[in-house]
Amino acid sequence: MMGRSHALSGWCAGLAVAPLVGLTSVAEVVPFAAATAGYALLPDLDHPGASASRLLGPVTGLISAAIRAFSSVLYKLTKGPRDEDSTGKHRHATHTLVAAVLLGMLTASLGDRGKWAVLAIAVAGLVLAADALGDWIVLVVLAAAGWSVFGAALPGTGAADSVQAGLTQIGGWIGVAVALGMFVHCLGDSLTRSGCPWLWPLPIRGETWYELRLPKPLRFSTGHWCERMVIVPLLTLGGVLLLPGALQAVQRLFDATSIWLAGQS
Length: 265
Description:
The chain crosses the membrane at residues 52-71, 92-110, 116-133, 138-158, 170-188, 229-250. This protein is mostly helical. It has one domain. It has helices at residues 3-17, 26-39, 51-54, 58-78, 97-111, 115-133, 136-151, 159-189, 225-241, 246-264. Helix 2 packs across helix 6 (115-133) and helix 2 runs antiparallel to helix 7. The termini are far apart.
């Protein structure tokens, strides 16, 4: 899938899962969804042309090269008797549930080391998301953060106290956002013709890197018109409707419109 599609699917997944980890207000849900959107791009660090690999120029380029080298070695060491003859670089090591869980746990442990570590991880996710989706997501997150700091601060507390409380709260879910974003990326790639071996190292039909994918008539290639004209618009719509209170607002608008139309007849 395209980077934009991955980021949008991560945004939607973050909005949907946020209540399950105890996040309900806009000030809580939006930063979580933004982080999930950003880290939904992370698996493609194994591709030199991906936005994540080009984000910081030579820095992320070197990280990408190291990941590709590691993935290639891992593939050669663990491939099954029926796995294809592949370099094992793209859509391998970083495109697995194991990688998502491990990186999520690592991120959570880093978050426990201090609030500045939490802030750095969250900002990195936001930068990745903005690179794929545009600056609007930064404005949305800043608005949510501003409300959290100034609008919803408890009486007698200052902005600094609110920031500290907010970073503490982020530290509780940042690992979940990273793991969720990476896993959603894997699911998205499973919709394409190439599939995704996200169940590695579980052996399936003699393959430890078995590419899970849709039935053949339903598959599409990356950037196909189906992705651009159907999936992206649906994800965009979902990304709006899943915002806290959005469905209720739509329902109220529908009810008001129905009443107005009834009055015109």
